[in-house]
Amino acid sequence: MPPMKPNTRQAMLQLIADIKQVLPFEAPEVQLCSGLCVGCPKKVMAFMEHEVSACEQALTNGQMPSLGEVQQLANTAQKVRKIMLKNQLM
Q1: 65: which DSSP letter?
Q2: Phi/psi at 54 (nearest 5 deg)?
Q3: Are 8 and 70 a contacting pair, CB within 8 Å?
Q4: What's the number of CA atoms in the CB half-sphere (13 Å) around residue 81?
Q5: What gap in Å lies between CA 56 and CA 52, rounded to an integer?
Q6: CA distances from 45 to 1, 37, 50, 67, 85 (A)
Q7: Is the pLDDT of residue 36 over 70?
Q8: Are 41 and 83 in contact (CB under 8 A)?
Q9: Which residues make Cβ contacts (< 8 Å) with residue 2, sequence separation at least 6?
């Protein structure tokens, strides 16, 4: 039996769910712009929200993401998470 190809759609959906659970998307702007400011948390979160929305829209339109696209979103989310940690927002 040949090895099963990974289902990138499911991987992307799970990644998006994980990102939404971990990153502070619901944090008020006032909280994002207080105290430390390493990498502008407000702009970084806006960028991440745009990336997640674009991936969700592509999935809704029936597009199948590649493994590279899943990995790219994961890498971006990891970088955003580090910025949020440096700013003590997580």
Answers
A1: P
A2: -65, -40
A3: yes
A4: 12
A5: 6
A6: 44, 13, 8, 23, 13
A7: no
A8: yes
A9: none
Phi and psi torsions of 23, nearest 5°: -80, 145
The closest of 16, 21, 12 to 67, measured between CA atoms, is: 12
- The answer to whether 90 touches 81, Cβ cutoff 8 Å, is yes
29, two tokens: 């702007």
CB atoms within 10 A of CB 20: 15
Asked if residue 74 lies in contact with residue 84, where contact means CB atoms within 8 angstroms, the answer is: no
Closest CA to 82 of 34, 48, 33: 48
Task: Note the pLDDT tens digit of each residue in 38-62.
Answer: 778 888 889 999 999 999 999 999 9
